[in-house]
Write a structure and sequence with these properties.
It contains 9 helices and 9 strands. By secondary structure, it is of the alpha+beta class. The chain is globular and about 60 Å long.
């Protein structure tokens, strides 16, 4: 067991970890541990130079307190050097609902609308910058936000022209939506982050992906990404349409023409992010294929 983890648990949880239950590392390091007081908890640590984690943890706690299916944070986000660290309940189990049908889109959208209603009135510091896959309004010089790993790849300056053209048009359309008010929302709404059981939704994960964007942009991004499991993709257009319509119905509001166009522009951006990564790292072109196939129609609906 890492010495820092032992010391942190003693200070923040008044208990000592005695057994490691799991560990994973991607954008954050996640460790499940059993404490000497009998509790099973998860400790998350990740770089956080701008303090985003404080808001993300606060949103997660608010959602859990309201009865939304997610692990409840047990501490605030604390800082060890450049790492944000917090503990939350251990909530294993549940199953992913794989597929990209309109019916699954509707089910996912109803849960997304439930979360939106819970966090609608939260007044917290915007967790900026937004996660990279929805950070189209970055201040960097290129189309995509700066990323040292991607930007230094040999193919970084030789992306497929059709991909660049779609990304350019989508980003330009989204830039026109800057006047829409921002709200807090979950920006990585993929089936890999949702678990279900026989009673319905069981757990929503990845609360580090809270973003501050117009509601229509958040819904649009989710409508394109909801079907992604281990390999990110872009949902079929009819399923994205079902997601957006179901969300509107669940929230008892209809998007304006401007907002509706923003949903379609935003529906492309996570897939554009993933398509670029596939090309740069010579991965199977799952998102890239769908972006090139669907891009023109989505941009038409976006007014781009």
């Amino acid at each position: 067991m890492d010495p820092w983890l032992v010391a942190w648990c003693r200070q923040e949880l008044n208990a000592t970890p005695v057994e490691r239950l799991m560990i994973s590392s991607q954008m954050a390091e996640v460790q499940g541990v059993r404490l000497d007081d009998g509790r099973d908890v998860v400790i998350k640590s990740r770089p956080d130079p701008t303090g985003r984690a404080k808001t993300c943890v606060a949103v997660q706690r608010h959602a859990a307190d309201a009865g939304f299916p997610c692990a409840r944070p047990l501490t605030e986000a604390t800082y060890l050097d450049d790492l944000a660290v917090h503990a939350e309940e251990w909530r294993p189990g549940g199953d992913m609902l794989r597929g990209d049908s309109p019916a699954l889109a509707e089910q996912s959208a109803r849960l997304y609308a439930q979360l939106a209603a819970i966090v609608a009135d939260l007044q917290l510091a915007p967790p900026l910058p937004n996660p990279e896959w929805v950070n189209w309004n970055h201040s960097g010089p290129g189309i995509w936000p700066p990323n040292e790993l991607h930007d230094n790849r040999p193919l970084a300056t030789r992306l497929p022209p059709a991909l660049v053209a779609i990304a350019t048009r989508a980003r330009a359309r989204l830039a026109e939506a800057d006047q829409l008010p921002g709200i807090l929302g979950h920006a990585d709404w993929e089936t890999q982050n949702l678990r279900w059981d026989s009673a319905g939704p069981y757990a929503v994960h990845d609360w580090d992906s809270i973003a501050w964007l117009p509601e229509a942009a958040l819904v649009g991004a989710a409508s394109g990404a909801f079907a992604s499991a281990e390999t990110p993709t872009l949902a079929p257009i009819q399923s994205s349409e079902a997601f957006i319509t179901t969300y509107e119905q669940a929230r008892s509001r209809t998007f304006t023409t401007e907002e509706a166009e923003v949903t379609w522009a935003a529906s492309l951006w996570p897939a554009l992010h993933n398509a670029r990564g596939e090309y740069l790292w010579n991965s199977r072109p799952v998102a890239l294929t769908e972006v090139l196939t669907q891009g023109e129609e989505r941009l038409r609906r976006a007014g781009a």
